[in-house]
Amino acid sequence: MIRNNILNNLKRNQKKVFIIAEAGSNHLGSLKRAFKLVDIAKEAGADAIKFQSFSANEIATTNLKYNVIRNKFKKYSSNLHSFYKKYELPMHFNEKIYKYCKKKKIIFLTSVFGFQSLKVTKKFNSIIKIASFESNYYELLEKIISLKKPIIISTGCSLENEILDLKLFFKNKKYNNFCIMHCSSSYPLKFKDANLRYINVLKKNFPNNVIGYSDHTLSISSSIAAVALGARIIEKHFTISKKDKAPDSFFSLDKKELKNMISNIRELERSLGFEKKYISKDIKIMRRGRRSYYANNNYKKGEIIKQGMFSALRPHVKKSFSANNYFYFLNKKLKKSVKKNEPLMRNSI
Q1: Among 157, 137, 133, 156, residue whose Cα is nearest residue 145
Q2: pTM attached to this predicted model
Q3: How confident is the model at residue 11 (pLDDT cuts 50, 70, 90)?
Q4: Is residue 61 part of a domain?
Q5: Quick one: residue 337, left, alpha or beta (phi over 0 = left, psi -120 to 50 = alpha)?
Q6: Are residues 122 and 252 both part of a single domain?
Q7: Residues whose CB falls within 8 Å of the CB of residue 174, separated by 6 or more in sequence, listed in order
Q8: For a surface tag, which of 1, 86, 187, 206 has the fewest beta carbons within 10 Å of its beta carbon?
Q9: Rounded CA gap, 92 and 54, in Å?
Q10: H or E element: which one contains 233?
Q11: Is 89 helix (H, G, I), strand (E, B) or coil?
């Protein structure tokens, strides 16, 4: 189940997008719910399911002077430490969920938020995910690099100069096995703030790395558009029911929506094709609908081909002169006779 070569495969494979179904906090501390989320992700066709492994102590201060929640998440808790404590994924769940994922043949991933969660989950994670708020946590990144595992990093809170600093950090560490995820850390994200064209900038700034997109909009269209722009990894929150009282549920997809998103992405993959002109068997047949030049009368060997002697008509005949050859054969001498309504063949001049 450990797949250290996933990012390398994404670089080589121009078709297959790696889709991560983000469970987030929607497990609500229940192993049964966590297993149900695995089932939904698998049935929807996701490549991986991702949970968030953290302990409140490694993610937030207990100092009430500083950790008061003032945004929309304040309805879940009054301060950050109690909020994270409430929605921790119990650390002993990681191995159980990992084994269940292995049984279901879907990749198990978690975001790590500190050294404790990294220590617990490193043996189960084939890829280490870093959330947007931790993208500048260089001390943690240095430890992950020492594990020599691929890293996926979201950039939802990063300024452009901070993203370039991150690039320099990895360059100085001589480590290139990472993916940069375009992201905007707003929940839910307004479409006008998605800024998907920035994916093109990331592709230029990180030409040797996989670029992905972590989508926090309420729809699936941004994820599909991101794939069209070149995103090779898509991460999207999902839940069992949007009526769940988890803080991630209200901007998550339900089972039907997740399946629909993945289906649309797979259709798009097939449509994107290759960075070269591709002619299918059907098109090769349809090319007979192009024109060849047909004789308007009987013509004898030795005659000079003049304007009006041949007309461009359908269908095109193999080894005949097609419509774009008109100026090539005009004023040439016929090497053999051509009967009326017969195509002008290449061996005729």
Answers
A1: 137
A2: 0.87
A3: low
A4: no
A5: beta
A6: yes
A7: none
A8: 1
A9: 12
A10: strand 233-237
A11: coil
